[in-house]
Design a protein that fits this description.
Structural class: alpha+beta
Strand order of the largest sheet: 1-2-3-5-4
Protein name: cyclin-dependent kinase
CATH superfamily of the largest domain: Transferase(Phosphotransferase) domain 1
Enzyme class: transferase
Number of strands: 12
EC number: 2.7.11.22
Largest sheet: 5 strands, antiparallel
Strand content: 5-15%
Keywords: ATP-binding, Kinase, Nucleotide-binding, Phosphoprotein, Serine/threonine-protein kinase, Transferase
Catalytic activity: L-seryl-[protein] + ATP = O-phospho-L-seryl-[protein] + ADP + H(+); L-threonyl-[protein] + ATP = O-phospho-L-threonyl-[protein] + ADP + H(+)
Oligomer: single chain
Number of helices: 15
CATH class of the largest domain: Mainly Alpha
Number of domains: 3
Order of helices and strands: EEEHHEEEHHEEEEHHHHHHHHHHHEE
């Protein structure tokens, strides 16, 4: 810790305090989280959920853990520094946020959550205090309660701040999923529009009561599992028909209200995933590049061996018996181009071959002009040789355009996957992204999605 100078305490939580600090060597401003609990071994530190989860995360909308320090049995986390948290911006705000600002923030958060869930984790403690903001950039922070999706239940009953806690957790369910994060996002999104919490319950019972008053009481059709959870703890839902969210969020558009309604569904299976939320019409003006359409790293090709060079030359000569032997100039051109391609291990582009072919034709024309002119006949040897030479160059160019050196596969335009539309989700299986049809959003009108690719 001697490399850092603590400047000011900027936050204090249940598990530790956060300080603004500066790196004495580089001058970089960082945020240092000092844990209140004592840690007497390094293994105990490394096995913390926050450390295990953040070590696997690398996303622009997830706060970056730069360093972990254990000194005198005190544990320090060194994070990148962000200026504010979302709660501070909401609390100090005098006028409402514009829908464009809310759309920008939520779009980034859903991208971060999609990455988090695809990596096998869910946050479990999403709230405005844990969302850090610097200018127009927002990041998800505080992974102290993060849990692996594939971990074995039962899960902890208390997971998040009550106002953003999903109803299945309020009913003491030990089997919940990443959909608890989607419920929290619906509550946060509504709060950004009104600057007031959507479900400000004073207790677990009062929280469920306020949820029922807004979205209506659950039924067997809307959430049969919830009724079973309630009966298991001898709880009876208050009967309420709810209200229209548009009346509670008058500044929100129809698409925004529709997304909040979907996110705050009783049944977790009816809430959209983060990937599906990104395809909602509310974000139709945002430019989202799905992982399946993102550019892949270029493949490096190794030069072929000497034996492969000879085989390729012989194969090329066998394929063009009519053009290559009849023209010394063409044969020399092809040999030099082939050797250059083989030595570099990179396929020559068609335009380069055509360019050199045109130069070769010019040299043939200039050579013919220097000789004494004789009117050629229709079957003159010069006309035949010149036609053969030109045909050989064009044939060679076509062969080179379709030939790949080193891989023996034709290089062409890779087929692009179809554009993603609203109602299509992407999910992570075996480390990759695949598209599959899911439930359709019904925003009331259709949009064309702007998807790269």
């Amino acid at each position: 810790m001697e490399r850092y100078k603590l400047i000011k305490e900027v936050g204090d939580g249940t598990f530790g305090s956060v300080w603004r600090a500066i790196n004495k060597q580089s001058g970089e401003v960082v945020a240092i989280k000092k844990m209140k609990k004592k840690y007497y071994s390094w293994e105990e530190c490394v096995n913390l959920r926050e450390v295990k989860s953040l070590r696997r995360m690398n996303h622009p909308n997830i706060v970056r853990l730069k360093e972990v320090i254990r000194e005198n049995d005190i544990l320090y986390f060194v994070f990148e520094y962000m200026e504010y948290n979302l709660y501070q911006l909401i609390k100090d705000r005098e006028k409402l946020f514009s829908e464009a600002e809310i759309r920008n923030w939520c779009f980034q958060l859903f991208q971060g959550l999609a990455y988090l869930h695809q990596r096998g984790y869910f946050h479990r403690d999403l709230k405005p205090e844990n969302l850090l903001v610097t200018k127009h950039l927002i990041k998800i922070a505080d992974f102290g309660l993060a849990r692996e999706i594939n971990s074995q239940p039962p899960y902890t009953e208390y997971v998040s701040t009550r106002w953003y806690r999903a109803p299945e957790v309020l009913l003491q369910s030990y089997l919940y999923s990443s959909k608890v994060d989607m419920w929290a996002m619906g509550a946060i999104m509504a709060e950004l529009f009104t600057l007031r919490p959507l479900f400000p319950g004073t207790s677990e019972a009062d929280e469920i009561y306020k949820i029922c008053n807004i979205i209506g009481s659950p039924t067997k059709d809307s959430w049969a599992d919830g009724l079973n959870l309630a009966s298991a703890i001898n709880y009876q839902f208050p009967q309420s028909v709810g209200v229209h969210l548009s009346a509670l969020i008058p500044s929100a558009s129809e698409d925004a209200v529709n997304l909040v309604k979907l996110l705050c569904s009783w049944d977790p299976s009816k809430r959209p995933t983060a990937g599906e939320a990104l395809q909602h019409p509310f974000f139709q003006s945002c430019f989202y590049v799905p992982p399946t359409l993102r550019s892949r790293a270029p493949v490096t090709r190794t030069p072929p061996s000497a034996g492969t060079k000879v085989a390729l030359e012989q194969q090329s000569a066998r394929r063009q018996p009519a053009s290559l032997p009849n023209s010394k100039v063409t044969h020399g051109f092809l040999s030099s181009k082939l050797n250059a391609s083989l030595s570099s291990g990179v396929q020559r582009k068609l335009d380069l071959v055509n360019q050199d072919a045109s130069r070769n034709e010019k040299s043939l024309k200039s050579a013919s002009k220097q000789q004494k002119y004789r009117p050629p006949g229709r079957k003159s040897p010069m006309v035949i040789n010149k036609a053969r030479s030109t045909r050989g160059v064009s044939d060679a160019a076509d062969k080179f355009a379709s030939m790949s050196i080193g891989s023996h596969r034709q290089i062409g335009a890779q087929p692009k996957p179809p554009p993603m539309k609203a109602g299509v989700q992407w999910s992570g299986e075996s480390g990759d992204m695949f598209l599959r049809q899911t439930h359709q959003f019904q925003p009331g009108r259709s949009y064309t999605r702007k998807v790269a690719g």
